[in-house]
Amino acid sequence: MTNRKPLLDDRKETAVTVARTGLPALVARHAEHTPHALAVADGDTTLTYAQLAGAARRLAAHLHEQGVRPGDFVALLMPRSARTVVAQLALWWTGAACVPLDPAHPGPRTAAMLEDSGATLTVGDSKLLEAAGTPGATLALPGDEQLADAEMPGDGPGPDDTAFVMFTSGSTGRPKGVAIHHGAIAELVTDPDYVTVTARDRVLLHSPATFDGSTFEVWSALANGAAVVVCTTERPSFEDLAKEVERHGVTVAFFTTALFHQLAARRSRVFSLLRTVVVGGEAMAAQHARAVLRAFPWVELVNGYGPTEATTFATTHRVTDADCDGPVPIGRPMAGATAHILDEAFLPVTDGAQGELWIGGSRLAHGYTRQPELTAERFVDHPTLGRLYRTGDLVSARPDGVLDFHGRTDDQVKVRGFRIEPGEIEHALREQPDVDDAAVTVRRPTPDDARLAAFVVAAPGPVPRPDALLGRLTALLPAHLVPAELTVVDRLPLTTSGKVDRRALADLATAAETIGAAEPLTPLQQAVAEVWSRSLGCEVTRPDADFLDLGGHSLLALVVAEELREDLGVELSLPDFFTAPTVAGHAALVERALLAAHTDLHPDAPKDTDGH
Ligand code: ADP
């Protein structure tokens, strides 16, 4: 039996109507109807809808004066703040598309993104622009107080105009820029039926602007007359997130699956404050979902599935306790998306069978910027089903049309919410003169952790040192693409068909930490080492043990910071964390913080010699 019809295609009339407008028109509509409603708050700045529209209009007029025209692609480099939202809106009001850049990315990566997106100008924060040494034309954005009131330079974008270019990992070694149009985002968020967002809600913006989760965070709020609460801390700790939610009365938040799992494992108090939690990026673990639903039964928990190419989410599922007996489903297609499960001959599979998920509908991206061949390969005109995107995801449908996710048909992996083509990292490694061949895989030292493990075959000559090789990669690739571990091997294991045997690699990739003769730890170092051991999933016995050498990464840093807070009552900021990422370094920071707290409580107590 075959199922040639899309599994669900009941777009709502409203969504279809809004899909015919660009995003600035949605803000203009609220500015007219509810001018005094809160639109954006970031701790320093609050903007009502009228103020947001006014500031964006003034900045748009300025950008127009500076030569920005409809159809231009303009890169944006700014720290996350209320001004980021103003700048995005202003760019769109001139008719330009926005290419978000990440200040943390290395120069060559940013240069490649600029080139592939076709951006002709980078605008943003003057200090960041200077520090990044962005190639090509740049323009520092003036503050609102420097701008005169102005009329809108044009009509603003239409639904088919590109809003964003979002980059994802590319297996050939170059990131792919996905062009996402206004109508697709408008349809994703306006009057959504998969999540409750009303004008009274406050939605947290904490994702990097280069990540399509941020599209949901900003636009689920602004499309519905709600407020965006911007977390300006670049890398917020779990405690920073909870405080932000508490301080601003946030009601709706999006978390990557990896972050959700960590928050769920600690029964974070964010869940007691939030009404709605949307999670996406990787398969949701049933035990974490169940723990949250049981401890915080009021939480509306939504599993959102979708590739960037289908505009953030394509299917969604409202998770209930009953879903948590097996793998949590990814749900049904939402407005603007259709789902088709096809076999290798592009025919629908029999009911209930596994097959590859192909997504259709009005929210599909227009394609990859400047990569027509790749676009043609992944976005295909199906003879009967229309234009479809080939996801590479294996799914099956339940009798009621709810989809289950079963993994990938290719090597693509997810690590901490980042989509990664091992091929991109392998390519960067093979480009190194002392490397002959390379393979990259994922290792899971604990169920909630995933790390990239690289294996290289050295070129003839001196064998490269792993830390030196990884250091060179850091200058080329963003942090999430730099492997946590690298091992030099004589040859890569191959399958009988001659391909790299990734399963064998995963087995090879065991914690290769050799622990030498250990100096004794002080009691405080011992306490820190225990926290590290738990989080890193390996025994930590040396005061000079280095967090990054042991496979530590940003999410684990959050875990360690949170556990140090819980166990020792000391809050380490992430910048502090990484200035001294050894057991001894952390113990010294903890000691200093404890002494400072002690002298605050007992002003007469003797101070330590540094005067802290
Ligand atoms: P997003 O940022 O929306 O996760 P990406 O383009 O980075 O989108 O990654 C898309 C891929 O991530 C999907 O093709 C799928 O493999 C995986 N993925 C995303 N969400 C889920 C989910 N809820 N459950 C399982 N896998 C998911």
UniProtKB/TrEMBL annotation:
Domain called Carrier: residue spans: 519-594
Keyword flag Cytoplasm: no
Sorted UniProt keywords: Phosphopantetheine, Phosphoprotein
Domain of life: Bacteria
UniProt keyword Phosphoprotein present: yes
Classification via InterPro entries: AA_adenyl_dom, AB_hydrolase_fold, ACP-like_sf, AMP-bd_C, AMP-bd_C_sf, AMP-binding_CS, AMP-dep_synth/lig_dom, PKS_PP-bd
PROSITE patterns in the cross-refs: AMP_BINDING (PS00455), CARRIER (PS50075)
Listed NCBIfam families: AA-adenyl-dom
Descriptive protein name: Carrier domain-containing protein
Organism of provenance: Streptomyces violascens
